[in-house]
Fold these 4 entries.
Entry 1:
Amino acid sequence: MARFETIDALPADSCVLVRLDLNSPIEDGEPQDNERFARHAETVRELVAAGHRVVCLAHQGRPGNDDFTTLSGHARILAEHVGREVAFVPDTYGPEAIEAIEDVEPGEVLLLENVRMCEGELPEEDPETKADTEFVRTLAPRFDAYVCDAYSAAHRSHASLVGFPLALPAYAGRVMETEYEANTAIATREFDGRVTMVVGGTKATDVIDVMDALGDRVDRFLLGGVAGELFLRAAGHPVGYDLEGMDRFDDQWERNHGTIESLLEEYGDRITLAVDLAYEDAEGDRGEVAVESIAEKETAYLDVGTETVMAYEPVIADSEAVFLKGALGVFEDERFAVGTVGVLEAMAETDCFSVVGGGDTARAIRLYDLDEDDFSHVSIAGGAYIRALTGEPLAAVEALERGRPREE
Ligand SMILES: Nc1ncnc2c1ncn2[C@@H]1O[C@H](COP(=O)(O)OP(=O)(O)OP(=O)(O)O)[C@@H](O)[C@H]1O
Ligand SMILES: O=C(O)[C@H](O)COP(=O)(O)O
């Protein structure tokens, strides 16, 4: 159980500073609506309904990156989800922001400007240093309490995440609370039956970290995606072909093949690899090939095959808990969604404790009209999810625990 306080304990009529994670894909300069808005809107709605004055902080991108931009568009999308106006001020702790904060009435919502535009937010430093920034020292006295809902950014030791909990009584919002409980389960909870971990996606290091940390707690790893192909390559199959202009496989192979080979050796009896893979044939249709019959590295494989899904289904059906990280194929293209959707459907059909994670992978649930309620939890976190799965502490969660309001 977490040792932080939740918004259930927030004193009535508070003026609250709420850290959300609205970091989103940006297209043509505009933020794209996604699950993060919907989830955080629930926390905001609850705070509003309780009559608190709600001022939100969030980030978008990083200085120097294309997706580093203002949050004015985010305020519009958040307003649609909350179902009421969300005012926006293009300032974080200067005079304009302070004036806007002072104008917030009970039940109203204000979003401040991208917190990463503000000096003191970055880089990652210890909570004491962050609490001592001008940013935190200026804003904190304007509020009665701090609420952290930004679970998906909780691995970052930034001022808005670890500084405020030292300066104000701190509470967890609903997203923080539910993500924490579900994602920590694999590292801390005892399950009676089989624990299965489905790992895919594009990042070999994610899969390596998970296996390194959870090798003893997971009974069966089912592999797919780019990571799965790298393990197939370690098993001697000539797969992992980079399409022109892409560098998904060879570079990761160079950097990680030693670790992948030794993981395969150490946990080989618990690792199940794809037996067939899918590709785009000359007509542009989905073709499938048995892994055993692949003789040369000359085709880009974009999904696991149907036989593989059929082999994974009974393992999932027979599990007490299933955790998924990363897609098994390029599910954004319907022709290559068979692996990801097949595994998600198998998870949805069982009564086991099931958690789906990875910012991108969770998107497949909406895209293919699966019902979120058929899973115990669908995480909206990427890096924080991996860290939670592997039992690594999250800086913002630790800060929340330290900042927990004390009984007088
Ligand atoms: N064989 C493959 N070739 C190329 N891309 C693939 C393949 N298999 C899966 N993918 C891609 O992997 C992506 C998901 O990978 P990623 O590692 O980003 O996982 P995630 O856990 O969902 O996201 P994140 O951790 O970044 O939030 C999907 O967008 C999918 O297109
Ligand atoms: O989108 C995310 O994963 C979080 O908001 C963290 O963002 P960052 O990787 O830019 O710190």
Entry 2:
Amino acid sequence: MKINAIELRRIAMPLRAPFRTSFGVETARDIVLVRVVTPEGEGWGECVAMSEPLYSSEYVDAALDVLKRFLIPALPEKVDARAAKRAMKPFKGHRMAKAALETAVLDAQLRISGESFGSFLGASRERVPCGVSVGIMDSIPELLDAVGGFVEEGYVRIKLKIEPGWDLAPVRAVRERFGDDLLLQVDANAAYTLADARQLAKLDDFDLLLIEQPLADDDLVQHAALSRQLKTPVCLDESIESVEHAAAAITLGAASIINIKPGRVGGYLEAKAIHDLCVAHGVPVWCGGMLETGLGRAANVALAALPGFVLPGDTSASRRYFATDITTPFELADGHLDVPTGPGLGIDPIQDILDSVTTSSEWIKF
Ligand SMILES: CSCC[C@@H](NC(=O)CCC(=O)O)C(=O)O
Ligand SMILES: [Mg+2]
């Protein structure tokens, strides 16, 4: 496939409500979309980096810079997703930027070939059960209201963000209000240290599905030590940036569940490789989220339909974060989202909505 031009479009998407984690509060998403234009069709990729390097070392301005100066110029004359991945490999890090470009190339090639993301990746289901991530709140009553609303909407799993000082009380309150059958897990975003092991072990009383990334974002060894002190399964997110990291985590016993986020690991090809490795080792995986628009959400829902994704993901409806999405909104039906079936992502940006949230656009001609 020959590329004629690539657009780097930056958009600002206000969130319906602030989303608080152990590392900060998100009130809007500042997103770079990559649009690959070829003679036979075009494709879209969404960069999940945040405005500031708080979730990981990546951030939007750096993603734009590395795309313009290094990743896009490295693409070969004739390109497909695998060739794009190979061409970007020499450059260290910047996996979210790489993922956005690789996904846009993959979307273009699949729209041209007529194959859906789900089919290309090996989806085995037509719809996926959806969980929802609930931020840290100012009070327990406020949290219970929010969780009640999501349970009402039909989400099949609740994930609570936790941090030191907001962990046992919210988990206990949700268990007491919604009962033992509610699928419940927590995500610390690396807010604890091994010295907190005894405090974290108190979460064992609440029959959680998992505790996500309790320790440092680049750690495996201490998570292995912690997992030997907990009954609750440890799930890794930030620590897993590649299939090699996943293999090391499994070998070390650092995680018994892995949250796969295509942006964090450099794209859907790497995400599929991690899925395949985990299936081979009997390690459950689920699809994480980075508050994506409908474009990234479409790709994530397709990924979440692969056989090894046996736990509900953070693949929520568009309205969980956005009053108006840049695509037809993903809407929960009986706690599930349908996997798009059209070519490529199977969904397109709605041009006037996209234009209304665009803060900048830059074209690179080939
Ligand atoms: C702004 S926080 C993004 C990272 C966070 N993501 C979520 O909690 C899910 C967000 C979503 O529903 O997309 C995580 O560490 O798993
Ligand atoms: Mg997480």
Entry 3:
Amino acid sequence: MLRNSLIGSLRQIKPILCSQSLRSLSNGANSGLTTIEVDDKSGIATLSMNLPPVNTLTLNLMHDLIDSINQIECNKSRGLILTSSNDKVFSAGLDLKELYKPDQERLKEFWTIFQDLWLALHLCGIPTAAAINGHAPAAGCIMATACEYRVMLPDFVIGVHATRFSFLVSKWMMLSYQSVLPRRIVERALNQGKLFSTQEALEVGLIDEVAGSKKEALAQCAAFIGTFDKANPIARTLTKRMCRDSDVTELLRDRAGDLRACVDYINTPLFQEGLSAHLEGLKEKK
Ligand SMILES: CC/C=C\C/C=C\CCC/C=C/CC(=O)SCCNC(=O)CCNC(=O)[C@H](O)C(C)(C)COP(=O)(O)OP(=O)(O)OC[C@H]1O[C@@H](n2cnc3c(N)ncnc32)[C@H](O)[C@@H]1OP(=O)(O)O
């Protein structure tokens, strides 16, 4: 709903009326796969993904994330911190089972909601940060790069390793990565299918800080959000959207075309064989 309004005019202030009262952050119509906690003192909302075992982005989790982002924005929180309830995995990325021999209509719905989630994070009017308290491969990394700041715990990996399984990524996903890292590093990392260790991610600038614990990561994200205290919130929102305009427009100018290309690619033998081998590899790990 909010996203559709924004799609109409990226430069406009959020045009919908948010009728919920401040801090009444119930998870109403969603499936309860996310939780929102608002710090009374700072007014910052922590949005946790809570889909065991590894926060795969299923249709329901993506729906809940979008719903929660909308709620947090509507309730005038000062900022949003995205994190995970799992202490080893931030998010394992898209649910691979949705991509394997998919039902065509469901696949279209799945890809469209993934586009929606990316837009929701990119266009979120309030400051956003990711407390990456576990592994963040593939779409887990893309969600983190859609936030404005990233703090990660040691000994985990982050990156887009799609080429390892003959996957491609859409241009708008690459642009997220490229909004954080220099183009030459993105080109190399995407082609290699590189997963960066926490330390490597810090060195290249994929993350902004390392934290010793989740508590510290949340505090560091909150400190980042506090750096906007002197900015007028409306001017800040408009400026953020202006800075992100070209990346967002890349997706919005032809969402249907992106959907078609992705659905076509996912249905190819090349993709399905790579995915089958990847799923086997995940099973054999045990
Ligand atoms: C023009 C063309 C343009 C575009 C092309 C279109 C589309 C292409 C699609 C490209 C999109 C890419 C984005 C993605 O996000 S794809 C998802 C990629 N993610 C992964 O590969 C992550 C795989 N998982 C892991 O590496 C590990 O699970 C992880 C390191 C995250 C955690 O390890 P841990 O040891 O803690 O857990 P596991 O035992 O491995 O996992 C537990 C169970 O969860 C299952 N699992 C894990 N990840 C996924 C997943 N992404 N989807 C579904 N299921 C997953 C795993 O198999 C285990 O299951 P069980 O064995 O317990 O049943």
Entry 4:
Amino acid sequence: MSQPTLTQIWPLRLANADFSLVDTSVLTSYLCFRHFEPQSTLPLLVLLVLIPAFLTIPISYHVQSPYLAPPLAFLAYGCLLILFILAYRLSPFHPLAKYPGPVLDKTSKWWAAYISARGDPHRYYKSLHDRYGDVVRVGPNELSIRDASLIHPVLGPGGLPKGPRWDGRPGLPALIEQRDPIQHMHQRKPWNRAFSSTALKEYESIVAKRIRQLVGCLEDRVHSSDQKEGAVLDMAQWMNYFTTDFMGDMAFGGGFELMKAGGDREGLWTLIESGLHVIAVLGHVSYLLPAYLSMMRGGDTIQRSRGLCREKALDRLRMDAKRKDLFYYLSGEDMPEAERPPIGNVAKDGTLAIIAGSDTTSSVLTALVYYLLCNPAAYHRLQEEVDAAFPSGEEPLDVVKLSHMEWLNGCINETLRLHPPVPSGSQRSLGRGKGTKVLGNLIIPEQTQLFLHTYSIQRDPRNFHNPEVFLPERWFSTDAPVGEHNTDAFFPFSYGPTICAGKNLALMEMRMLICWVLRRFRFSKTLGFSYETWDVTTEDWFVLHQHPMLASISRRE
Ligand code: HEM
């Protein structure tokens, strides 16, 4: 007995002519999607609603009830469209067909969105590299790369511009969202002025004031604690309060006061944070972001936080402060009046400074305390170095001295290596019509997105010997232990024209804070807290998100 063909199967008992009409319509729509990538409403309406609605007519001649025709037309159209897309993505004709990777990743970005929702991208991509090699296909058109020799060609001057993960956000793009390299260069100018060495000098007193306040808050907690080992504090939380208060001073002339209130009194920080995870997830399917923002409460959250940041920017303008903080440069107070940006842009840049400058720095500070607690010999050696550099009573304000403390800087680098705050790097893309590009030993077809996976590159034994071990001495300028040590593979602040604008500020802040708290306090492990598992609970929301990290703190005599 012969098998029925698709055209004979109920409910799609179509005549051959009608079947090819469905077929041709789906194929045409598929090609339109592939070549034009329509994002605006009208073409999407035509392709996803109008064409299947039109197919209802031929299908209605072949079904028993006319009411069945519309759902069948949409179902058949949708299924065939998905089938075409999947078949092409898995076929040997796809430009990225030669790169290995899991089928789920090759077929859709929804899998990556799911991994992001779990907070796991950094560990997941590392496991893929361990299994498949240096170049892994992690999306239909996306590659993850674990090859340090490609850092310069991809991220350096003349490399690739930022990718579509930054699309779909409302309003003018902030610096980090700017995909056009020329616009980016233009927008970056005030940031470069704000982080020049002369400007950095001005910020020392602002950092010092906030560290003094942090030390005071910790002292109060230690004082009021009745525990023998001192106060048990969540270092992730306190480091976060500190960095947010400090960035609030820099970006808007102050006003967060998380340390003073022991929490987020105003709610602005919580508002900003609440959007980060959602945006990290939807960044994989960024065409959905505008719809999400307009339909869901996410839109409200962003509008509210934007409104509050705008108010803060206006307050700071009214202060007419003479001090040269980040706001001074971002608002163009150092420029003629005619060249100053509108207040909306300044508020957006200020918000970026708070997001980019607080979670990142606080996650390194927390992880550094964690590594010291887990490596008593390293802790002891750092304590000795700090005590020798800043004898009793002296505040660690000398930034030149701080920058030469070899063990301190080894500990910071080692934390940034094992625990990069942006673990999965910054996406790049080669747009449509750009042709094929050769970067190092990699041939990239147009319309490819890629990222250099910082977490995997910095834990690769070909770059660093004993890569999973915390070894500050590997960073010594002389007498470093023998073994692989490829400093070109160390890029926690990224690289090239988009390298972190606040790198030098972050380093100054971290060096000063670590020395200051080690002069005053003794840190020890808190009984019952699981240090073995804390490290693997960190979540990658583009920026690392940390769970509580408890430490017992007592005053040093
Ligand atoms: C340990 C602390 C920090 C680390 C590891 C870090 C890392 C990074 C990384 C990886 C990027 C992405 C660069 C790219 O797209 O190629 C970035 C961008 C940026 N960071 Fe940081 N960051 C830190 C602290 C700060 C601080 C304190 C600020 C101060 C405001 C800051 C401001 C920025 C800005 C404005 C950008 C956008 C740069 C651009 O697109 O041109 N960061 N950072």
